[in-house]
Amino acid sequence: MKPEFDRDLFLISRRFLDDSLPKEKEYLYHYFKTYVQQIFVRYYYEVGRTDYFFQHTGVYACTRWLKKLRKRYAYIEDAYEKAKEEGDFETISLIKSGEHPVPLTNPERRAKGYKNE
Prior knowledge:
Blueprint lengths: L3 H10 L21 H13 L5 H5 L5 H24 L2 H9 L20
Helix pairs in contact: 2-4, 4-5
């Protein structure tokens, strides 16, 4: 986590609205396609929580939808880290290309072969 002063300056500058993710995290854009979703993923990557998402971004999103986006983000990141630890290069390439099946809300209820379109 960034020091508090740096995070405050980051929030005040609102750079997350214009900056993109680091090169190694750009695969997340395959799973978050709309403008609001991309703002969410950049904001969540930097801040790590969504308590003040509306106040910091000026973009309204209901709490339930933000929770679904957080779950999707966590699922993708967990799958990527697990594949990296196990050396599963096929899964890594699927995740980076945006073709890895990701549930919309609940990973346990994922339909086999689901493709996020």
